[in-house]
Amino acid sequence: MSPQTSNKPQTIVDRIRAYRQGDTLPSVVLAAYLETTRSREPEVHAYIDIFEDVASQAERADDLVKEGRFEGMPLLGIPLATKSNILIKGKRATACSKMLENYIAPYDATVIERLRKAGAIFVGSTNMDEFAMGSSTEKSYFGPTHNPHDLARVPGGTSGGSAAAVAMESVPGAIGTDTGGSVRQPASFCGIVGLKPTYGAVSRYGVIAMGSSLDQVGPLAHTVADAEILYDVIRGVDPYDSTTYPDGVYPVVDTKDTYHIGVPRDFLRKGIDPDVLARFEASLEALAKAGHTIVDISLPYMEKGLAAYYITVFAEISSNLARYDGMRYGLHVPGKDLLCDYLETRREGFGKEVRRRILLGAYVLSSGYYDAYYRKAEIVRTLMREELAAAYRDVDIIVTPTVPTPAYKIGEKEDPLSMYLGDIYTVPVNLTGVPALSVPMGTVDRDGKSLPVGIQFIGPHAGEARLFDIGKRFQGEQ
Questions:
Q1: pTM of the entire structure?
Q2: If we measure between CA atoms, which residue out of 84, 225, 231 comes closest to residue 145?
Q3: Which residue has the higher pLDDT, 168 or 328?
Q4: Rounded Cα distance, 115 and 108, in Å
Q5: What is the spatial distance between Cα 122 and Cα 403, in angstroms, rounded to a whole number?
Q6: Which domains, and CATH codes, for the chain?
Q7: Does the structure show a pLDDT above 80 at 467?
Q8: Cα–Cα nearest to 2, from 457, 466, 359, 392
Q9: Are 135 and 181 in contact (CB under 8 A)?
Q10: In terms of Cα–Cα distance, which of 277, 267, 265, 220 is closest to 405?
C-alpha cells in the first residue's frame, strides 16, 4: 500500500529466522554491522560510544543460539543501539552534555534489563541533543549527527543518533526517547519506523529525565513488525516507576478489517511543505483504496498544543535539571564559595539551549506568572485530552504527516522558534499521552537528493496493536 519502495535491509525478523534455521550466528551478523559502522560512522557520527564488550556479548549469544535456547529470548543475538540518556550499568550515560561527560551508570534502566533478558546485544550509545533538548541532534556536546540520506542535513532529534544508526544499517533496531516527537520526527527524516508508546506503557526508570509527564521510551526500526517486537519486550508495569500501568487500566482496543481514519485538515494547513502535503494526500488515497474510510475531523485545541507543550516542558525541565548542582555527581567547577560552585558548574556544564529552557521554565513557574502561563497550559492540555476522547468515538485512528517538512540543512534553523514549529504535529501526542507511530510515506526531492518523509498514525490510549496493524498494512508487511 505504501508509496515507498526500495532495497530492503535485513530486519530483526530476518535475523531471528536465520538464527533459528542455523544459517548464521550473532557474531557473524555483528561483524557485518560493525564493518558498516566503521565505514559510515566517521561521516554520520551516530554514536558516542561503541562498547568494548560487544564482541564478547555476541560470543555468548552464539553459544545460546547453538544450544537452541530461543524460548523467552525473542531478541537473542540482535544488535541494538541505545540513546545516551538511557542507563546501562558500567557504561557512560552522558545525555550528550558536558555536565555528564564522564558519568558511569551504576545500574541498568528497566528497558535495558528487559532487552538484556530478551538476548539483545548492546552495540553502543547514540548521539542526541543535550538532555534531549532540540529537534535536530545539532545541540550535542559531542557535535552533530548527519542524516545518512544527505550528510548536509540533520537526522532529526533528539533521538537522531539512534535513527541514523538504524538508517545507515549499523544496527537493525535502536531505542530512543520521545518527549515531543523525538522518536517519530527522526524516524520521518531518516526513512524508518518510530513508535511513541502510550504514556506509562514503558518504564522510565533509569532514563535521564527531561519532561517527566511527557517522556516515553520508544523503538526505532526498519519495519513495523520489528518495532512491535522491540515494544513487546520493553513494555509493561514496573514497580520502580509508579506511572507505568498494568493491563486492564485502559479499555481493550481491537484491530479491525477496515478503519475509520480521521484527518484534521484545518490543523494540517499550518506551515506544511507542499511536497509533504502531496505525499500525505497520496497516502490517504492509498488508504482509501485499501478499504479504509477517510473522515475529515476538527481538532481546534490541537492547534494550541505547540504553545502549551513548550510552557509545560520548560517548566518540567527547570525542575528536573535542578539536581545538577556539581555536588553529587557529574561536572564540578570550583568557585570562591558554595554558591559560586553551583553557578560556575551550571554555566560551564550546560549548553545554550539547556540554559535557555531552564530560564524560561523558572519564569513560567515563578510567582505572578504561574497562573498566567503554566496553569493555562495545563487547562489546554486537559481540553486536548477531552477533544481526542470525543474524536475517538467517531474514528478509529487519526492521521497526520509526522513533520511538516523533510530534513533541513545543518545550521539552517539557528532561530529556536523556527525549530520549535517543526514539532506542531507531534507534541499533541505527548501532551495527551496517546500512542503514535511514524512510518515512511515516500520521498521528496531537495537539491538532487531524495529525502524521506513520514506519516503519523495516532491511536487511542493503549492502542498500539491497532497502530501496528494499520502500519503493517500501509507498509505492505501483511
A1: 0.96
A2: 84
A3: 168
A4: 10
A5: 30
A6: 12-257+409-475 (3.90.1300.10), 302-377 (no CATH)
A7: yes
A8: 457
A9: yes
A10: 277
